[in-house]
Amino acid sequence: MRIRRIYDPPMADDGARILVDRLWPRGISKERADLTLWLKAIAPSDELRRWFGHDPERWTEFQARYRLELQNNPESVENLKSFVKNGPVTLLYGARDTEHNEAVVLCNFLQGGLQKE
Question: A Pfam family this protein belongs to (predicted)?
């Protein structure tokens, strides 16, 4: 599993390209995105997304709140896990910040859950 910005060009080894943002990224056409799936149901809630605002000072609390949302969203998590179990997956996000975004939290959450299985 890897994490990439949707603005980066697709790579041959991306595998399933899954957008995990709730909003469609500006300036990206569906053709350019080359998505396997847009899984907006797994993205942080609008309320959490607005509260976080990509503020690094809120990062720790954002991670905790988003993990709680993920725990309460088993259908979307299982949907994503099925892709991960069947081959390479690239989680795509639109944020400029490569360290403080939902894809980072989601990847860590999934890796922890898959190790337990």
Answer: DUF488-N3i
Task: List, in order, residues 6 or more apart from 56 with CB less than 8 Å away.
Answer: 97, 99, 100
Q: Reduce the secondary structure of the chain to three states and give it as a string.
A: CEEEECCCCCCCCCCEEEECCCCCCCCCCHHHHCCCEECHHHCCCHHHHHHHCCCHHHHHHHHHHHHHHHHCCHHHHHHHHHHHHCCCEEEEECCCCCCCCHHHHHHHHHHHHHHHC
Structural domain range at position 84: 2-116
Q: Torsions phi, psi of 92, nearest 5?
A: -110, 140
Give 36-66 pLDDT, tens digit per residue: 999 999 999 999 999 999 999 999 999 999 9
- 0.90 exceeded by pTM: yes
